[in-house]
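Researcher: Good morning. I'm working through a list of sequences from a screen, and I'd like to move beyond sequence-only analysis. For each chain I'm collecting a predicted structure so we can compare shapes side by side. This is the next one on the list. No need for commentary yet; just the structure.
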Amino acid sequence: MEIRWSQSLKDKRAVLRSLKDRIRRKFNVSISEIEELDNHVLARLGAVQASNDTKYLQGALEKLLQVLKTWPDAELVDYQIEIL
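Model: Good morning. Structure tokens for this chain:
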């Protein structure tokens, strides 16, 4: 995620807190910032969801991706989906 207008880590964390809270409530996933912790403009997030139904996981992750793509305060720059 890129938060271009962010001037500080405090700005970045406010955006990420809001985003992560909404995602946790809506999608029942574990989500955390995993890289770029000291960069006030970039954030790398990791999200995990467990299920024995691959089709369900794929659909849920695609819906999550749509939320990330349309989040007004940040831009999704890149993503990767892995289902193991």
